[in-house]
Amino acid sequence: MPKESAKYLVGLSLLPSIGPARMSKLVSLAGSAEAAWSASPDVLRASGVDEKSLLPLMEKRTRIDPDRELERVQEAGATVLTLDDAGYPSLLREAFNKPAILYVRGSLQPEDSQSLAIVGTRRPTAYGREMATHLTSELARHNLTIVSGMALGIDTLAHRSALQSGRRTIAVLGSGLDVLYPSENRGLADKIVANGAVVTEYPLGTQPDAFNFPARNRIISGLSLGTLVIEAGEKSGALITSRFALDQNREVFAVPGRMTDRHSIGCNRLIRRGEAKLISGPEDVLEELNLAFTPQQLEIDYQGASPAEKAIMAVLSSEPIHIDDIGRETALPAAQLSSTLTLLELRNLIRHVGSMHYVITR
Q1: pLDDT at position 1, please?
Q2: Cα–Cα distance measured from residue 85 to residue 183, given in angstroms and rounded to the nearest whole number
Q3: What is the pLDDT of residues 90-140, one digit of tens each?
Q4: Is residue 2 reached through a cis peptide bond, with omega within 30 degrees of 0 on the bond before it?
Q5: Where are the domains of the chain?
Q6: CATH T-level topology, domain 307-360
Q7: CA–CA distance, 164 with 190 (Å, rounded to integer)
Q8: β 226-230/145-148 pair status
Q9: What is the mean pLDDT of residues 77-97?
Q10: CATH code of the domain occupying 110-288
Q11: Positive or negative: CA dihedral 163, 168, 174, 177
């Protein structure tokens, strides 16, 4: 890591009024990170710093020691990547709105150039949870690194499913590495660090303010060959990620939902407008990305299945079905239905997804 460049960018990231976009502009105007750090008032003004912010910025600059700030990052178990580093993500480097600096816990690897972003609502339905788990697992098994934002809901399911498949995953934060949000995902973050990376463009101590997240989303899409949206409402942040992906000339995919489902308004609109490709299975994503698809055989042994098990399996699909509806379709007595469902679940052939709804295990 070019320490001289890194330490000055770390210092710049701590200055008021120097956000990610302005930092890149300032470095470009000054000619280097070091020159940007000591930029004159005129250069600061040219980068967009207004008069009201100029004096506080210059005063704070006198109180920051770039060498010490870089040491603090390292003491936090993180590294810094700049555009001068060979390890800066190749896909992100190609994006027009790439960040000048990345703070990283864990490691970014060359194989992460085959990455897919998976994003969606924080409050998924049973259908959304099933699609996120199934699609992520299949795509991860085909050696795609899964990128998301570690938010609750679809993001969390995507990260967990990638890890459970033994594959890499990258989480992009809208805060500093030491201010994990949401706090419920601290344990998940540690697991991601062990088999991937947690990254951010924001310095240590940065709080998860709402306006950080739209900018964060451009990094999620920028790190990825494409973005898959699973359940997005009319104003979902996942739609911001898809917009960035389109602007970065990356692929956008969406899982369709029912017309009356508010959780799928955004996905259906993306498909209707031709901004996203409709996805009916993992093979659709892999085909568009020119990656090979190897079908995973379902672990269903029909030869050894009882008539009751066969009847239930014939009814189930990836769409959650209530136990009462299964009973009506199969005409099985309640006691036999319940015991057979339990046996199938123990054999990992079906899954209970809550509220007495069941789906087939893919």
Answers
A1: 42
A2: 31
A3: 999 999 889 999 999 999 999 999 999 999 999 999 999 999 999 999 999
A4: no
A5: 1-72, 110-288, 307-360
A6: Arc Repressor Mutant, subunit A (1.10.10)
A7: 14
A8: unpaired
A9: 93
A10: 3.40.50.450
A11: positive
